[in-house]
Amino acid sequence: MTREKVELPPFQALIDAHWRDVARLARAMAGPVDGDDAAQRAWEKAYAAYPALTSAKNLRSWLLTITARCATDVHRARKPQRPLEEAPPVAVEGPDAAAWPDPDLWRAVNELPERQRFAITLKYVGDLDHHGVAAALDTTPAASRRLVSDALATLRSKLGVEDD
Amino acid sequence: MTDLESRLTRLAMPDPGHTELKRPVLPDADVAYTLHDTPIGTMLLAIAHGRVVASSFGDEETMTTRLARAVSPRVLRQARPLDDVRRQLDEYLAGTRQAFDLEVDLALATPFQRLVLTDLPTHTSYGATTTYGTVAADIDKPKAARAVGTALGANPVCVVLPCHRVVGANGALTGYAGGLDAKRFLLNLEAKR
Questions:
Q1: Which residues of B are tagged catalytic?
Q2: Distance of CA B78 to the CA centre of its chain
Q3: Which residues of A touch B9 (CB under 8 A)?
Protein backbone atom coordinates (compact mmCIF):
# COMPACT_ATOMS: atom_id res chain seq x y z
CA MET A 1 0.00 0.00 0.00
CA THR A 2 1.40 3.37 -0.93
CA ARG A 3 0.95 6.24 1.42
CA GLU A 4 0.37 9.71 0.04
CA LYS A 5 3.01 12.20 1.01
CA VAL A 6 1.54 14.34 3.77
CA GLU A 7 2.91 17.85 4.06
CA LEU A 8 2.97 18.45 7.79
CA PRO A 9 3.71 21.93 9.12
CA PRO A 10 6.84 22.41 11.25
CA PHE A 11 6.14 21.08 14.76
CA GLN A 12 7.18 24.41 16.25
CA ALA A 13 4.19 26.02 14.51
CA LEU A 14 1.88 23.62 16.40
CA ILE A 15 3.52 24.48 19.70
CA ASP A 16 3.31 28.22 19.08
CA ALA A 17 -0.34 28.00 18.05
CA HIS A 18 -1.63 25.54 20.65
CA TRP A 19 0.60 25.31 23.72
CA ARG A 20 -1.70 27.51 25.79
CA ASP A 21 -4.78 25.47 24.84
CA VAL A 22 -3.01 22.22 25.65
CA ALA A 23 -1.81 23.55 29.01
CA ARG A 24 -5.25 24.85 29.98
CA LEU A 25 -7.06 21.70 28.93
CA ALA A 26 -4.58 19.55 30.86
CA ARG A 27 -5.02 21.69 33.97
CA ALA A 28 -8.80 21.69 33.64
CA MET A 29 -8.87 17.91 33.31
CA ALA A 30 -6.13 16.81 35.71
CA GLY A 31 -6.12 19.79 38.05
CA PRO A 32 -3.54 22.51 38.52
CA VAL A 33 -1.09 20.12 40.17
CA ASP A 34 -0.99 17.25 37.65
CA GLY A 35 -2.00 19.32 34.65
CA ASP A 36 1.46 20.65 33.76
CA ASP A 37 2.85 17.14 33.92
CA ALA A 38 0.08 15.88 31.65
CA ALA A 39 0.65 18.68 29.13
CA GLN A 40 4.37 17.95 29.00
CA ARG A 41 3.70 14.24 28.41
CA ALA A 42 1.14 15.06 25.74
CA TRP A 43 3.71 17.13 23.82
CA GLU A 44 6.31 14.36 24.11
CA LYS A 45 3.83 11.82 22.73
CA ALA A 46 2.70 14.12 19.95
CA TYR A 47 6.31 14.88 18.99
CA ALA A 48 7.14 11.16 18.84
CA ALA A 49 4.09 10.31 16.74
CA TYR A 50 4.16 13.37 14.47
CA PRO A 51 6.20 12.21 11.45
CA ALA A 52 3.96 9.15 10.99
CA LEU A 53 0.72 11.15 10.80
CA THR A 54 -1.26 10.38 7.66
CA SER A 55 -3.22 13.63 7.62
CA ALA A 56 -2.36 17.24 8.35
CA LYS A 57 -6.01 18.07 9.02
CA ASN A 58 -7.43 18.78 12.49
CA LEU A 59 -4.02 18.90 14.16
CA ARG A 60 -5.39 20.94 17.04
CA SER A 61 -8.06 18.34 17.69
CA TRP A 62 -5.41 15.61 17.48
CA LEU A 63 -3.28 17.43 20.07
CA LEU A 64 -6.20 17.95 22.44
CA THR A 65 -7.16 14.28 22.16
CA ILE A 66 -3.64 13.25 23.17
CA THR A 67 -3.77 15.81 25.98
CA ALA A 68 -7.08 14.42 27.23
CA ARG A 69 -5.65 10.88 27.31
CA CYS A 70 -2.49 12.00 29.11
CA ALA A 71 -4.52 14.02 31.59
CA THR A 72 -6.64 10.96 32.33
CA ASP A 73 -3.57 8.73 32.72
CA VAL A 74 -1.60 11.09 34.93
CA HIS A 75 -4.59 11.77 37.02
CA ARG A 76 -5.66 8.15 37.48
CA ALA A 77 -2.09 7.09 38.20
CA ARG A 78 -2.27 9.03 41.46
CA LYS A 79 -4.91 6.65 42.80
CA PRO A 80 -4.43 3.45 40.83
CA GLN A 81 -6.39 1.25 43.20
CA ARG A 82 -9.69 2.90 42.38
CA PRO A 83 -11.96 1.45 39.70
CA LEU A 84 -12.19 3.60 36.57
CA GLU A 85 -15.77 4.61 37.30
CA GLU A 86 -14.58 6.23 40.49
CA ALA A 87 -11.64 8.19 39.18
CA PRO A 88 -10.44 10.66 41.77
CA PRO A 89 -11.55 14.25 41.56
CA VAL A 90 -9.02 16.82 40.42
CA ALA A 91 -6.84 18.35 43.08
CA VAL A 92 -8.30 21.82 43.13
CA GLU A 93 -7.77 22.22 46.85
CA GLY A 94 -4.01 22.56 46.63
CA PRO A 95 -2.09 25.50 48.07
CA ASP A 96 -2.73 27.43 44.86
CA ALA A 97 -6.47 26.82 44.73
CA ALA A 98 -7.38 30.31 45.90
CA ALA A 99 -5.34 31.80 43.08
CA TRP A 100 -7.45 30.09 40.43
CA PRO A 101 -10.24 32.14 38.99
CA ASP A 102 -13.82 31.06 39.66
CA PRO A 103 -13.20 28.55 42.49
CA ASP A 104 -16.93 27.80 42.85
CA LEU A 105 -17.07 26.61 39.27
CA TRP A 106 -13.88 24.58 39.76
CA ARG A 107 -15.41 22.82 42.72
CA ALA A 108 -18.68 22.12 40.95
CA VAL A 109 -16.92 20.80 37.82
CA ASN A 110 -14.74 18.70 40.04
CA GLU A 111 -17.75 16.94 41.52
CA LEU A 112 -19.21 15.90 38.17
CA PRO A 113 -18.96 12.26 37.03
CA GLU A 114 -15.69 11.79 35.16
CA ARG A 115 -17.09 11.42 31.61
CA GLN A 116 -19.22 14.53 32.04
CA ARG A 117 -16.29 16.46 33.45
CA PHE A 118 -14.07 15.46 30.53
CA ALA A 119 -16.78 16.22 27.99
CA ILE A 120 -17.42 19.75 29.20
CA THR A 121 -13.73 20.61 29.60
CA LEU A 122 -13.05 19.38 26.06
CA LYS A 123 -16.07 21.28 24.77
CA TYR A 124 -15.52 24.60 26.53
CA VAL A 125 -11.87 24.79 27.61
CA GLY A 126 -10.69 22.88 24.51
CA ASP A 127 -13.27 24.62 22.30
CA LEU A 128 -13.90 21.37 20.42
CA ASP A 129 -17.16 20.56 18.64
CA HIS A 130 -19.04 17.37 19.49
CA HIS A 131 -17.16 15.44 16.83
CA GLY A 132 -13.86 16.47 18.45
CA VAL A 133 -15.11 15.70 21.95
CA ALA A 134 -16.42 12.32 20.79
CA ALA A 135 -13.07 11.46 19.18
CA ALA A 136 -11.18 12.34 22.36
CA LEU A 137 -13.53 10.31 24.55
CA ASP A 138 -13.84 7.44 22.08
CA THR A 139 -17.60 7.81 21.81
CA THR A 140 -20.23 9.22 19.45
CA PRO A 141 -21.15 12.89 18.89
CA ALA A 142 -24.65 12.13 20.18
CA ALA A 143 -23.22 10.73 23.40
CA SER A 144 -20.96 13.77 23.72
CA ARG A 145 -23.97 16.06 23.34
CA ARG A 146 -25.75 14.16 26.10
CA LEU A 147 -22.76 14.24 28.47
CA VAL A 148 -22.38 17.98 27.98
CA SER A 149 -26.05 18.77 28.47
CA ASP A 150 -26.28 16.59 31.59
CA ALA A 151 -23.18 18.28 32.97
CA LEU A 152 -24.55 21.75 32.28
CA ALA A 153 -27.83 20.86 33.99
CA THR A 154 -26.00 19.65 37.10
CA LEU A 155 -23.77 22.73 37.17
CA ARG A 156 -26.75 25.04 36.80
CA SER A 157 -28.51 23.56 39.77
CA LYS A 158 -25.36 23.37 41.90
CA LEU A 159 -24.30 26.92 41.18
CA GLY A 160 -27.85 28.24 41.28
CA VAL A 161 -27.68 29.86 37.88
CA GLU A 162 -30.74 30.22 35.67
CA ASP A 163 -31.14 28.96 32.14
CA ASP A 164 -30.48 32.05 30.07
CA MET B 1 -23.59 31.09 24.66
CA THR B 2 -24.98 31.21 28.18
CA ASP B 3 -23.22 32.88 31.09
CA LEU B 4 -22.34 29.47 32.53
CA GLU B 5 -20.84 28.36 29.24
CA SER B 6 -18.67 31.45 28.98
CA ARG B 7 -17.48 30.90 32.56
CA LEU B 8 -16.54 27.38 31.51
CA THR B 9 -14.47 28.66 28.57
CA ARG B 10 -12.39 30.64 31.06
CA LEU B 11 -11.85 27.72 33.43
CA ALA B 12 -8.13 27.08 34.04
CA MET B 13 -7.17 30.39 32.53
CA PRO B 14 -4.52 31.51 34.98
CA ASP B 15 -4.38 34.97 36.46
CA PRO B 16 -1.58 37.03 34.96
CA GLY B 17 1.54 36.82 37.07
CA HIS B 18 0.35 33.74 38.92
CA THR B 19 0.68 30.05 38.06
CA GLU B 20 1.83 30.76 34.51
CA LEU B 21 1.13 28.14 31.90
CA LYS B 22 4.22 26.16 30.96
CA ARG B 23 5.68 25.69 27.50
CA PRO B 24 6.70 22.12 26.69
CA VAL B 25 10.33 21.02 26.78
CA LEU B 26 11.26 18.56 24.03
CA PRO B 27 14.37 16.54 23.14
CA ASP B 28 16.81 17.73 20.47
CA ALA B 29 14.87 18.29 17.29
CA ASP B 30 15.38 16.56 13.94
CA VAL B 31 15.74 20.11 12.65
CA ALA B 32 16.72 22.72 15.24
CA TYR B 33 16.65 26.37 14.29
CA THR B 34 17.22 29.76 15.84
CA LEU B 35 16.94 33.37 14.78
CA HIS B 36 20.29 35.07 15.09
CA ASP B 37 20.83 38.83 14.98
CA THR B 38 23.92 39.82 12.99
CA PRO B 39 25.32 43.09 11.57
CA ILE B 40 23.83 42.09 8.20
CA GLY B 41 20.36 41.35 9.54
CA THR B 42 18.48 38.59 11.33
CA MET B 43 19.45 35.19 10.01
CA LEU B 44 17.63 31.91 10.44
CA LEU B 45 20.17 29.20 11.26
CA ALA B 46 19.15 25.55 11.15
CA ILE B 47 20.91 22.28 11.79
CA ALA B 48 19.84 18.69 11.09
CA HIS B 49 21.85 15.61 12.12
CA GLY B 50 24.85 17.81 12.87
CA ARG B 51 24.86 19.53 9.47
CA VAL B 52 23.92 23.09 8.65
CA VAL B 53 20.79 23.06 6.48
CA ALA B 54 19.99 26.76 6.55
CA SER B 55 21.72 30.07 7.10
CA SER B 56 19.22 32.32 5.53
CA PHE B 57 17.63 35.75 5.40
CA GLY B 58 14.25 34.16 4.62
CA ASP B 59 11.34 34.55 7.03
CA GLU B 60 10.68 32.03 9.80
CA GLU B 61 7.41 30.61 8.49
CA THR B 62 8.64 30.10 4.93
CA MET B 63 11.96 28.60 5.96
CA THR B 64 10.61 26.25 8.63
CA THR B 65 7.88 25.06 6.27
CA ARG B 66 10.50 24.27 3.62
CA LEU B 67 12.64 22.47 6.20
CA ALA B 68 9.63 20.48 7.42
CA ARG B 69 9.04 19.25 3.87
CA ALA B 70 12.62 18.68 2.82
CA VAL B 71 14.11 17.20 6.02
CA SER B 72 11.61 16.32 8.77
CA PRO B 73 8.43 17.89 10.18
CA ARG B 74 10.00 17.70 13.64
CA VAL B 75 11.32 21.24 13.40
CA LEU B 76 11.84 23.06 16.71
CA ARG B 77 13.16 26.44 17.79
CA GLN B 78 16.17 25.39 19.88
CA ALA B 79 19.21 27.61 20.31
CA ARG B 80 21.64 25.18 21.94
CA PRO B 81 22.28 22.82 18.99
CA LEU B 82 23.30 25.93 17.02
CA ASP B 83 25.82 27.28 19.54
CA ASP B 84 28.82 26.31 17.40
CA VAL B 85 27.30 27.65 14.18
CA ARG B 86 26.47 30.97 15.86
CA ARG B 87 29.94 31.23 17.35
CA GLN B 88 31.67 30.62 14.02
CA LEU B 89 29.36 33.03 12.23
CA ASP B 90 29.98 35.73 14.84
CA GLU B 91 33.74 35.21 14.55
CA TYR B 92 33.55 35.45 10.78
CA LEU B 93 31.42 38.61 10.94
CA ALA B 94 33.87 40.14 13.43
CA GLY B 95 36.71 39.46 10.98
CA THR B 96 38.46 36.91 13.19
CA ARG B 97 37.59 33.82 11.11
CA GLN B 98 38.18 33.22 7.40
CA ALA B 99 36.82 29.71 6.87
CA PHE B 100 34.01 27.73 8.45
CA ASP B 101 34.59 24.39 10.08
CA LEU B 102 31.03 23.17 9.54
CA GLU B 103 29.38 20.39 7.61
CA VAL B 104 26.66 21.52 5.25
CA ASP B 105 23.63 19.64 3.94
CA LEU B 106 22.00 21.22 0.89
CA ALA B 107 18.65 19.55 1.53
CA LEU B 108 16.85 22.74 0.51
CA ALA B 109 18.65 23.04 -2.82
CA THR B 110 17.78 21.64 -6.25
CA PRO B 111 20.30 19.30 -7.93
CA PHE B 112 21.63 22.17 -10.09
CA GLN B 113 21.88 24.50 -7.07
CA ARG B 114 23.85 21.77 -5.29
CA LEU B 115 26.24 21.56 -8.21
CA VAL B 116 26.82 25.31 -8.06
CA LEU B 117 26.93 25.69 -4.29
CA THR B 118 28.75 22.61 -3.02
CA ASP B 119 32.24 23.57 -4.12
CA LEU B 120 31.83 27.31 -3.72
CA PRO B 121 34.32 27.48 -0.83
CA THR B 122 36.97 25.93 -3.10
CA HIS B 123 36.01 27.94 -6.21
CA THR B 124 36.27 31.20 -4.29
CA SER B 125 38.70 32.52 -1.74
CA TYR B 126 38.48 34.84 1.23
CA GLY B 127 38.96 38.46 0.26
CA ALA B 128 38.61 37.89 -3.49
CA THR B 129 35.65 38.01 -5.85
CA THR B 130 34.89 35.88 -8.86
CA THR B 131 32.23 36.14 -11.57
CA TYR B 132 29.14 34.12 -12.46
CA GLY B 133 30.83 33.17 -15.74
CA THR B 134 33.92 31.85 -13.96
CA VAL B 135 31.84 29.75 -11.58
CA ALA B 136 29.88 28.44 -14.57
CA ALA B 137 33.17 27.40 -16.19
CA ASP B 138 34.36 25.83 -12.92
CA ILE B 139 31.39 23.45 -12.95
CA ASP B 140 31.82 22.70 -16.68
CA LYS B 141 28.73 24.65 -17.73
CA PRO B 142 30.43 27.63 -19.37
CA LYS B 143 27.22 28.91 -20.99
CA ALA B 144 25.20 28.80 -17.77
CA ALA B 145 26.32 32.07 -16.15
CA ARG B 146 22.73 33.28 -15.77
CA ALA B 147 21.51 29.98 -14.30
CA VAL B 148 24.49 30.06 -11.93
CA GLY B 149 23.40 33.53 -10.81
CA THR B 150 19.90 32.25 -10.09
CA ALA B 151 21.25 29.22 -8.21
CA LEU B 152 23.50 31.43 -6.08
CA GLY B 153 20.57 33.76 -5.38
CA ALA B 154 18.66 30.79 -3.95
CA ASN B 155 21.56 29.76 -1.65
CA PRO B 156 19.96 28.31 1.50
CA VAL B 157 23.27 28.41 3.39
CA CYS B 158 24.35 32.04 2.96
CA VAL B 159 27.72 33.28 4.26
CA VAL B 160 28.87 29.73 5.15
CA LEU B 161 28.72 28.97 1.42
CA PRO B 162 30.14 32.29 0.18
CA CYS B 163 27.86 33.25 -2.71
CA HIS B 164 28.59 36.89 -1.81
CA ARG B 165 32.03 36.51 -3.43
CA VAL B 166 30.46 36.07 -6.85
CA VAL B 167 29.77 39.28 -8.78
CA GLY B 168 28.88 40.35 -12.33
CA ALA B 169 31.48 40.33 -15.14
CA ASN B 170 31.73 44.15 -14.91
CA GLY B 171 32.28 43.98 -11.14
CA ALA B 172 28.72 45.02 -10.27
CA LEU B 173 27.43 43.39 -7.08
CA THR B 174 24.24 42.40 -8.96
CA GLY B 175 22.14 41.00 -6.11
CA TYR B 176 22.06 39.23 -2.75
CA ALA B 177 19.41 37.45 -0.70
CA GLY B 178 20.29 39.62 2.30
CA GLY B 179 20.29 42.81 0.21
CA LEU B 180 23.16 44.60 -1.54
CA ASP B 181 24.19 46.38 1.68
CA ALA B 182 24.82 42.99 3.25
CA LYS B 183 26.86 41.85 0.26
CA ARG B 184 28.90 45.08 0.38
CA PHE B 185 29.43 44.61 4.14
CA LEU B 186 30.75 41.06 3.60
CA LEU B 187 33.08 42.01 0.75
CA ASN B 188 34.41 45.01 2.72
CA LEU B 189 34.91 42.80 5.76
CA GLU B 190 36.95 40.30 3.74
CA ALA B 191 38.92 43.10 2.00
CA LYS B 192 40.15 44.35 5.42
CA ARG B 193 42.20 41.31 6.33
A1: 163
A2: 15
A3: 124-125, 127
Q: Which residue has the higher pLDDT, A81 or A110?
A: A110
The predicted-structure confidence for A90-125, as pLDDT tens digits, reads as follows: 555 444 555 567 878 888 888 899 899 999 999 999
Answer whether A12 sits within 8 Å of B77, measured CB to CB.
yes
Size of interface A-B (CB pairs under 8 A): 117
In which residue ranges of chain A is CATH 1.10.1740.10 found?
7-84
Q: How confident is the model over B176-183, as a mean pLDDT?
A: 91
Write down the number of H helices and E strands in chain B.
8, 6
Domain A7-84 class in CATH:
mainly alpha
Among the partner-chain residues B3, B21, B76, the one whose CB lies closest to the CB of A12 is B76
Q: How far apart are CA B83 and CA B57, in angstroms?
A: 18
What DSSP element (H or E) covers B153?
helix B145-153
Q: Is B77 left (phi over 0), alpha (psi -120 to 50) or beta?
A: beta
DSSP string for residues in A36-69: HHHHHHHHHHHHHHGGG-S--SSHHHHHHHHHHH
Sequence-separated (6 or more) residues with CB below 8 Å from residue A63: A14, A18, A21, A22, A42, A46
pLDDT, tens digit (0-9, with 9 covering 90-100), for B63-98: 999 999 999 999 999 999 999 999 999 999 999 999
| CATH class of the domain defined by A95-164 | mainly alpha
ipTM value: 0.91
